[in-house]
Amino acid sequence: MTLAIIESCVNCWACEPLCPNGAIVAAEPFFAIEAAKCTECLGDRPAPQCAEICPVEGAIVNELDEPLNPPGSLTGIPPERWAAVRREIAAR
Amino acid sequence: MPEAIRRQVADHPCYSEQAHHHFARMHAAVAPACNIQCHYCNRKYDCANESRPGVVSELLSPEQAVRKALAVAAAIPQMSVLGIAGPGDPLVNPERTFATFRLLAEKAPDLKLCVSTNGLALPDAVSELARHNVAHVTITINCIDPDVGAQIYPWIFWQGRRVRGREAAAILIEQQQKGLAMLAERGILAKVNSVMIPGVNDRHLVEVSKAVKAKGAFLHNLMPLIAEAEHGTFYGVMGQRSPTPAELKALQDECAGDMALMRHCRQCRADAVGLLGEDRGAEFTMEKVEAMEIDFDAALQRRLEFRAAVAAELETKRERAPQASPVTLHRRAPRPADDGRPVLMAVAAKRGLVFEHFGHAREFLIYEASAAGAKLIGHRRAAQYCFGDAECGEAEDVLAQTIRALAGCEAVLCSRIGWEPWRELEAAGIQPNGEHAMEPVEDAVMAVWREMLAAGRLVRSVAEQRCA
Ligand code: SF4
Ligand code: SF4
């Protein structure tokens, strides 16, 4: 069981200090998780810490390549409502 | 502003309007991580061509940051403050932040230390801040109502979990208010920054201003939202607009009432270097800094001498003209009907003088001149040719953009100006004036105002006279 960081990572450092296993590396061109060290935080934390703080939807994925923060989960706006919300905000 | 506080901030460029003409600061970009998301922030922070909070071009280790600070303080004797403002939140990177302060205090004990924070981790950090002699803390507080907050902060990271929406905003607000009160108890000066977001918190900020004052903030800084689609922020992408200069000024006037309000803030990058309004960061990249030879003691001596000279100069000035404190409170005193209406003027200034060529000015200070004197009410950025990324796009020409930025001003004071901008400014109803080059800004502004008054251009309308 292990998570991975993909290229949409913006190298913001938020996840790195939180990992209980020191599995996150400030790699170039984007951060990386050392698969051998990652436990998905099981037993240490209530949820995978890197995925709980990552500000980028889709940047952290599980072994099935599913994003832990899928589209709409961080802005709070599901993709189908995006256009409507944009109109609302632009009218302010 | 009470005398004791005025003395404490007398050499802090970000806190004292007078000091900002003379003193310089450096922001050390050592703190990358952040624990909340704001809709006006994009966490992809490294762009060399942008100037706004949260943006830096190189992230530094504490050792590098101190090396750079000492180099800057040796080259620029005006340097009086080292601040940590990001690019994330200093208190979410406590080891890096406090290591920087510790190392710097050993080599340059005269420099004041300050941090800017979103406040979520503040209550837990107050003791540590006090231990490191941090003189000033700035908290960004955009709301005290969780329903307003839910429109600004989509989530926070709290006790190992991502918390969303109204609940997140409620926790953040509680921590901010608690932290603010704790700073006041410890005698650490707290300034509050608020970002004005039209249709979201603009009306609400009047209430925020009262609340933070009651909790002990000594200064409130109302800043306009910066939102451009190309910055990639949520607000930018969604088309949230920024306030107009007139909307911002109206809110500042409304909040000013009985609290010190700051009007000279430049919304710096998190790695800014130098006097406010002139970023010299490019002269001090790590590569250049590594190559510099520095005599720490001689540099310290030069700074102390410089400060003594400025203090003496300001003291004479104050004795000559016993006026309001540097951060002026706005008063609505009854006025005689024939004293002339107030006029907004833009000044291309440097070090308190009318200094710059119109075409070279990167920003203009905006003054309101009236019979009561010249009052700084803000600054506006001149449009710049951007040599960065092709996507930035040059939508309209630079002169037209600058003229638009000066909307509402009736005169612009500069040391010199070309023929074409002169004509265009005049056509836009802004009178260029190059006759006061090298004069102190406030004297020049008042001289121009008196000329306008003598020319009969400042007669109030009948309706205004009745209200006055
Ligand atoms: S899931 Fe937990 S253990 Fe794995 S990288 Fe993220 S923080 Fe570290
Ligand atoms: S928190 Fe997300 S975006 Fe930031 S460094 Fe980690 S994986 Fe990359």
Beta strand % of chain B:
15-25%
CATH class of chain A: Alpha Beta
Catalogue the unreliable spans of chain A: none
Most extensive interface? A-B, 22 and 30 residues
Can you tag this structure with a few keywords?
heterodimer, A: 92 residues, alpha+beta, Alpha-Beta Plaits, two-stranded antiparallel sheet, two-stranded antiparallel ribbon, 2 helices, elongated, B: 468 residues, alpha/beta, TIM Barrel, 2 domains, 7-stranded mixed sheet, binds iron/sulfur cluster
Describe this structure in words.
The complex is a heterodimer of chains A (92) and B (468). Chain A has helices spanning 49-53, 82-90; strands at residues 4-5, 24-25, 32-33, 60-61. With 92 residues, chain A is of the alpha+beta class. Chain A has a two-stranded antiparallel sheet. A two-stranded antiparallel sheet of chain A has the order 2-3. In chain A, strand 2 and strand 3 (32-33) form a beta hairpin. With 468 residues, chain B is α/β, with parallel strands linked by helices. Chain B has helices at residues 3-8, 62-75, 94-107, 122-131, 146-149, 165-186, 205-214, 234-238, 245-256, 286-290, 296-320, 398-405, 419-427, 441-454, 462-467, and strands at 24-27, 36-37, 79-84, 112-117, 136-140, 155-158, 161-164, 189-196, 219-224, 273-275, 343-347, 349-350, 353-354, 363-370, 373-381, 411-413, 431-433. Chain B has a 7-stranded mixed beta sheet with strand order 9-8-5-4-3-1-10. In chain B, strands 15-14-11-16-17 form a 5-stranded mixed beta sheet. The two termini of chain B are 27 Å apart. The model of chain B is unreliable at 322-337 and 386-393 (pLDDT under 50). The chains are: A alpha+beta (92), B alpha/beta (468). Chains A and B meet through helix 1 and helix 2 of A and strand 7 and helix 8 of B. Bound molecules: iron/sulfur cluster (2 copies).
